[in-house]
Amino acid sequence: MEQHPSKERTLVIIKPDGVQRSLIGEIVKRYERVGLKLIGIKMAIPTREMAIKHYYEVGGDAWLEEVGRKARENYEKKGLQSPFATNMENGKAIMEANAKYLSSGPVVAMIWQGNQAVALVRKITGSTEPLSSDVGTIRGDLTLDTYQMSDLDQRSIRNLIHASGNVSEAEKEIPIWFEKAEILNYTHLQEKILYDVNLDGILE
Ligand code: GDP
Ligand code: MG
Fold first, then answer.
1. Protein residue closest via CA to atom 22 of ligand 1
2. Structure confidence by residue, pLDDT tens digits, 83-98
C-alpha cells in the first residue's frame, strides 16, 4: 500500500554554527509550529568520515558535479571566473570544506515527519546562501554569510542547517544518522486536527 502523505520524513541537522549561536530552540520551534512531528533527535560530534559519508554516499559523483556546477554559476553571476578547472574539482573542494565544517563541533540531528515534510522544511529553512535566503526563513533571518566571504576565506558557507533535498535523499540520509530503535513511532495529538478526515472528536 502507498504510504499516506502525512508519513513523509526528512532529515535536518543543526550545524555547529547553529549550536554555537544558541539557536537550537529557535530552529526547533520553527519546524514544530508548522505542524511537523519530531520522531528522532540527538546531539553528536560527527567525525570527518561521517560527514563525508553524509555528503558522498548519498549524492555520489552526481552531487559533486551538481554542487560544482552551481558554484561555477555563482562565480559567473558575479562576473568572476571559477578558480577550479572542472565542476568536479570544485565539488570535491566544497565537500571537503563541508566535512571540516560539520565535524568542527556538536550538531543536532533530527527527523521531522508530516505532509510534504521535505519541501516544507526546505521552505522554512531558506535557500543555501544566507544573504539571498528569503526574510522569514531560518537562514534569511538568523545569519549573514555569503559565498563571496566564504570563498575569500576558503571555507564552507555557514548556513546553520542541513535539510534533505528530496524524499529519496532523506531516505538515504536518515539511516546514516539514526538507528531504527532511535526513530519513534507515536501519535501526536495535533495530527487529529491536521489530518483527521471527519474532525468528529471536537464537539461534546
Ligand atoms: P543545501 O541543500 O541548501 O544545503 O545545498 P546543497 O545540497 O546544494 O549544498 C550542500 C552544501 O554545500 C551547502 O550547505 C553549502 O555549504 C555547500 N555549497 C552548496 N553550493 C555551494 C556553492 O555554490 N558554493 C560554495 N562555496 N558552497 C556551496
Ligand atoms: Mg542539499
1. 71
2. 899 999 999 999 999 9
User: Hey, what amino acid is at 103?
Assistant: S
Supply the residue whose CA is at minimum distance from atom 24 of ligand 1.
Answer: 71
Give residue 12's identity as a one-letter amino acid code: V
- Give CA separation, 118 vs 48, 99, 125, 201, in Å: 25, 22, 11, 29
Atom of ligand 1 nearest to the CA of 101: 16
Class of the CATH-defined domain 1-45+106-130+160-204: alpha beta
162 annotated active-site: yes
In 10 A of CB 181, how many CB atoms? Answer: 6
What pLDDT does residue 125 have?
A: 98
Find the farthest-apart pair of alpha carbons in the chain and give their distance in angstroms, rounded. 69
Nearest to 162 by CA among 105, 123, 109, 114: 109
Is the C-beta atom of 75 inside 6 A of ligand 1?
no
What's the average model confidence in pLDDT over 49-58?
Answer: 94
Alpha helices in the chain (DSSP H): 16-20, 24-33, 48-52, 58-77, 87-102, 117-125, 138-142, 147-152, 167-177, 191-195
Cell of 37: 512531528
Cell numbers for 164: 534533505
Answer yes or no: is pLDDT of 1 > 80.
no
Mean pLDDT, the chain, integer: 96
Hey, which of 56, 65, 67 would you mutate to test ligand 1's pocket, going by the most ligand atoms within 8 Å of its Cβ? 67
